[in-house]
Amino acid sequence: MIRIIKLVSKKVLSSSFMFLIFIYITVLLCTIPSNFTLDFENGRLIPSHVGTLIIKDTNEKFLSLIRFDLGRTGTDGRPLNYLVTDIMKNSIFLLSSGLVLAIFLGILKGIFDSKGGRERGSNLKVLSTIIPISLPDILIIALLQRLAVFLNNHGIEIFRVGGGGTINHLLLPLVALSILPASYIGRITSMSMDDCYKQDFINIAIGKGCSNSRILWNHVMRNALPMIIGSLPTITTIVISNLLIVERVFGYPGLTNALVGFL
Amino acid sequence: MKKCNQNIPLILGIIIVTGLIILSFYPEYFTNSDPYGKERLDFVYINGQLNIFEPPIEPCTEYPWGTDLYGRDMKSLIFYGSKLTLFTAVFIALGRLIISLPIAILAAYRNRFFQWILRQFNIIFSTFPLIILTMLLSRIALLKDLFMEPTRSVGYILIFFGWSRLANLLKEKVEEVLCQDFIEGEIAIGKNKIEIALQNVIPHLIPSIVVLFFLEIAQALLILSQISVFGLISSTGTVEAAGDYRIPFEAEWFSLLASPQLPLSFGRYWLILYPAAAFAISIIGFNLLGEGLRLEFDKRNSKVITWIKGIPSFISPLRLIYEIKNIATYKESVRRKLILCTVILIIIFFPQKASEYRFIESNAMTTIEELSKVEYGGRRAGSGTNQMVAKYLADKLEDYGLQPFDGKFIHEFQMNKVVNINESTLAVINGDAGTRELKFRKDYYIVNPIDIDGTYDYQYVTMEDIGFNPYSSKDISHLKGKVIVIDIRGLDMQTAGQFISFVARSLEPPALLYISNWKSTDFVTKRTVDRVAPDDTKTINISVSSDIGEELIRRSNSKLHLMIECEYADNPISTSVVGFIEGSNENLKDEIIILGSSFDSVGDDKNVRFPASMEAGGTAIELEIARILANIPEKPERTIVFTFWDSSQTTQRGSEHFLKQYFVGSRKAFYIDLRNFGFRDSDRLIIDTTNTLPKDLLAQNYIKTLKKNASRNDVKIVYGKIGSPITQDLLYCDINSIIIDSEGIDDIIRTPYDNLENINEDKLNKPGQMLLDTIYDIIYGGIR
Prior knowledge:
heterodimer; A: mainly alpha; MetI-like fold; 2 domains; two-stranded antiparallel sheet; about 75% helix; B: alpha/beta; Aminopeptidase
C-alpha cells in the first residue's frame, strides 16, 4: 500500500512539476517583447533587450498567475481576472457544447460507417471518412456562412453569420466546431467497432441468438467505448484549435479575441 | 495492376497529387494571366450608365474566380501559389520525418532519455494546440530575423514542435518490427543495435514511412490553413510596398486566407471560398494517397510494397557499378537503367533554340563607360551635362537609322530651379565632451536645403513638451530661435508629418532635426536628388539616423554648428531622347511597345563622385537593342519606341512630359522599363508586373514571352514591387507596364561604389539577350 502511495505521489509530483515548467515557458514566451532580437556586432551576439529583466518580469507574472491574479489590462486598467472569467464563460460554453455535439454525431457516424461484422468493400468507407477530416475549418465555415446568407435572403432567418449573444448566433459556430472532430470520432468509433466485431465473443452472442441492436449496444459499444474515451484528449485539442478559427471568423466574443488582441 | 485498379482512394490520390505537382511546376499553362498584375479602378459605360469597377471584383467572364482585395486575379494567384504552399507542406513533413525517425527508433530501443522526450512532447502537444504556440512564437522579431521570411519561420516552428505525433506512430511501427522473430535471429548472428536499425528496421519501415509522409503533408497543410486565418504568414504575398525599392514576393495561399471575417461578412465569398477549396483538395489528395497506399500495403500479395522497397537499390549508384561489373547476370537491368539515365540526361541538356540575333555586351559596356565619365558629373538633371549625354544618345540613334519621334530625337522642356547640396557640416559642440561631427549623407540627410552657416542652441522636445499630444497650451517661448530635435520613430506617416509641421509652424526653428527609423550607413548614400525648398520655407528639415538620434537626445541642451552650401542651376533644361522603328502590319502597328530607361542620376557632390554606372546599365542595354533591331532589314510587325528619360529623379520628369503629350489613354501600348543592370554580385533580376491588367491578355502574353526567354537564356527572375517614378506617369496614361531591375543592389545603388569597377560585362549579357529575344518575339513573332 505504501509503495502504491509512493508511486502515485511520485507520479503526481513529477507531473505537477512538468506542468509548472510548461506554464513558466508559456509565460516566458508571452513576456518576450515582440521586437526582441539578437544583433551581431563586432563578432558578438548582443540581445536587443536585457535578458535578466525579461526573466524577472516572467517570474513576477508567473508568481501572480500561481496566486490566480492576472493583473490588469494595459489600456484601461480593468482587472483581467474578471475579464478572462467573463469571456471564458462564452468560450467554454461553445467548446463544451461543440464537444458534446461532436461526440454524439461522431458515434452515430461511426455506427453508420462500421461494417457491422459484414465484409464490405472498403473504398466507399475510406472516402467517406477521409474527405470530412480533410476539409479545412475555414472551408466549412465559408460554406456555412454562404448557406446562412442564402437562407437569410430567402426569409429564413435562423442563423446569424457573425457576432454573439443569442442562441441564433451560436448555431453556426457550433456546427462548424463539431463537424471535424465528429469525423475523427466517427473514424475511431468505426475502427474500434470493426475490431470488436472480429472478436470471438460476438460470434458466441450471434450463436446465442442475440438481436443486432443487443449485440451493438451490449457487446460492441461496451468494448469500443474505452477506445473512444481514450481518444478524447486528442479530440479536445482539435476542438480547441477549431475554436480559435471559429471564434475569429464568426466574430464570437470569446477568448480568441483577447488572444489576438494580445498579439 | 488489377489489384491496384480496385483501390479507388489510391487512384484518386495519385490523380489529385499528380495534378497538383504539374500545376505547381507549370501554372502558366493553366491560366491566362500573371498572378501579380492588378486590376485598377475603372470607369466603364454600360448602356449609357457609368459603372465603377473597383477591386475586389466578383467572379465574371474576365475573372472566373474574381479578384482579391488588391485586384489580382484569384485563379492565377491560386495556381501560381500552389508551388510555395505545397513545398512548404512537404518541407514541414520532411523536417518532421527527419527528427522523428531517429527518436522513434531510439525510444523503441528503450533509451530512457528519448522515451521521456517523446512522452513529454506528446503530453504537451496533445493538450496545448500548436496553433497557439505558433502565434506566440511567430510574433518575436528574432525568428523573423533568423529565417528572413514568415513562411520559413512558421515552417520551422511547425517542424520543431509538431514532430511528436509522427514519432509516436513510427515508434509503434518500430516496436512491431522489433518483436518479429527474425530480429532475434539477427541478434544471434551478432549484429549490434545500429546494424539492426539500419539493415532490418528501416527497410521494413519504408512502406509505413511512405504512408505517414503523405498523411503528414496533409496534416501540415491543414495546420497551415488554420494558421493562415490569423494572418501569421501573410507578408510574402500581400506586401504593398509603394515607395519602397525592390521588395520580392511570391504567391502563396496563406495570405489569401488572412483576415477572412471581413470579406465574408461583406458577402465577398470568393475571397475565401476558392483558396479554402484549394487547401481542401490538396489535403484530400494527400490523405487519399496515404490511405490508399496503406490499403495497398495491407494486402498480403501487394506488388507495390515490393516495388517501393526496390527503389533505393534501383537508384543506388553502387548497385549500378556492381551490376556493370557482373554484366552477364544483370544484362537486362543495366540496359534499363542506362536507357533511363540517357533519357534524363537528354531532358536536362536538351539544346535550346538559339537566339536569332546576338546581344553584344561589349557595346553595352562602352555605353556604360561613356556615361560614367567624369565630365558628365554624375548626370544630374538640369546640370547642363545631361544635354551632352542626350546629344550622345541621339547621335547614336541617328547612326543606327531609327526614326526621330515627332520629327525630333531630343524632346526638351524648361525645368524649374534645380539644386544640389555641394557640402554640409553638422557638428554637436558639447564643452567638456568635445565636438562630435556628423557625416553628411551617412548620418543625416537634408530634406529641404537653404544656405546656412551658424552655431545654434539645440533642444530635444517631445510631443508633450510643446503641447501637441495631449493638446494643451504650453509656454514654448524659451524654445524660439533654437534648433529643435524630435523623435518620429514609431509614429505613423500622418502623425509624424503633423508633428513636424506643428513644430515648424509654432516655433519656426532655423533647423528641425527629426530622428527617423534608419541606421547610419558606412558609406555616403544619396538616395535621391536634392529637392528645392519652397520659397516661403524658414526651417531646414533634416532627417537623422536612429543611432545618431540617440546621441543627440543624450547630449540635449548643447550647441550645434550647421553649414549648408548649395549649388543652384537656374533655367535648366530636361532633355529626353526618343526614337522609333515603325511597324509594318497595319493592324498591329498601333500596339506600340515602348522600351524605356532613365539616363540621369543623382549627380556628383563637391568631393564625392556618383558615377551611377549601374543606373547607366538600363540605357546601355536599350541602346544595344536599338542598334540590333535597327540593323534588321525586315520591318517589324509592331512599332517599337526607344525612350531615354532625363530628369527622372526630379519632380519634373521627362517621362511625364513626353507620355502626357503623346500617350494619354493608350491602353494598346505596352511599356518595359529597364533600371539598373550589370552589378557583379547580383545574380537575379527582379520583375514588377503589378502594373499590368490581368484581363489584358495581349500584355499577359508579353509577360509570358519574357518569362520564356528568361528560362531560355538562364536568367533567374523573381517577382516583386519596384518603386519607379515612371509608374505614376504610366498609370496616368493607362499604359500596361513591367519594370525590370537587378536584385540585391540596395546597399550599393546611389553610392560612390556604383562605379565601373563593380560592373561585370558578363552580367549584362544574359539580361540583354533575354530582353532582345523578348522584344524580337513581341514585335516580329506574331504574338496576338
